[in-house]
Amino acid sequence: MTTAAPSLYTAPRVDRMRMEMRADVLAGLRSRPKTLPSKYFYDATGSELFERITTLAEYYLTRTELSIMAKYAPEMTALIGPGCLLIEYGSGSCAKTRLLLESLRAPAGYVPIDISGPALHISAQNLMRQYPRLIVHPLCADFTDLRSVSLPDMREAHRVVYFPGSTIGNLTPIQAEQLLRQTARLVGRPGGLLLGVDLQKDRRTLERAYNDRQGITAAFNRNILVRINRELAADFDLDRFEHRALYNSVVGRIEMHLISDRYQQVAIGNARIAFAGGETICTEYSYKYKVEDLEKLALAAGLCIDRMWTDDRRYFAVVFLRTA
Predict the structure, then answer these.
(1) What is the percent of the chain where pLDDT is above 90?
(2) What is the pLDDT of residues 4-52, one digit of tens each?
(3) ∠ CA(67), CA(68), CA(72), 5° rounding?
(4) Domains of the chain, residue spans
(5) Cα separations in angstroms, 154 against 65, 87, 109, 146, 151
(6) Does the domain spanning 1-232+288-324 belong to CATH 3.40.30.10?
(7) For residue 169, which of 69, 130, 286, 301 is within the disulfide window of CB 3.0 to 4.6 Å?
């Protein structure tokens, strides 16, 4: 049975999301140091740029995770079991999801959750064409806060969240624990979480992955300013902000920045933000995990590692966690 994708937008919802974005942006740019929430990367252009990043030679993450999924998807779906409602955080193009759906037994349905409405709508429509018997219910939402979101009743045997791409690395350890707690509550018992995690490795490999020679990651980073200009009536000059990504080995994370090349003032509607020369906006963290740290994080959130799959170099891991 095929279900039509529900409408993702209403005028009040769009207005509310824009008000939330303005509050987030101004709060971040008025803080010290300046920050911007990485979730605002993903408008239609940002989603397209990120898909291009995943194909770059330097960006090992996606192809490594895909190789793990292609090799071990039958083992993963055997652990997940039949009759599950599959919920995906940050679904994007659903490329990895298809590897699960190919071997998942009698899923009750699929709920992709993504903050980028246009990308979500396109991927949901494509999936429904490819899997006409699959019930697909897309939700345009911030998956880090689902308190006001109601999941459809699909009479599932159990729920499993799929969270690929090492997106958990974009959260601080406190935020990651909060998200895992939310997930444990969402799936209940006997539920689970299939999680993609980037593992710690040498600095050169990590920094190359976020500073590609073609400049696509730089364009992706600056696109957050393009979006703020368009949606919040701002006047950022993109040529005055340089992209830079560095690995902080003390805390085990990539830190992505936009750096002001001079003193300048930027208008965001009727607000003005001053930038010193060399001042940075931190736009994203990407934490890289040790397995023992992931185990501690999971246990603190009420989950435990059931099974883990890695590539031969142990660059990346896909982990299945159950509610403890």
Answers:
(1) 82
(2) 455 555 556 668 889 999 999 999 999 999 999 999 998 889 989 999 9
(3) 120
(4) 1-232+288-324
(5) 29, 12, 7, 18, 9
(6) no
(7) 286
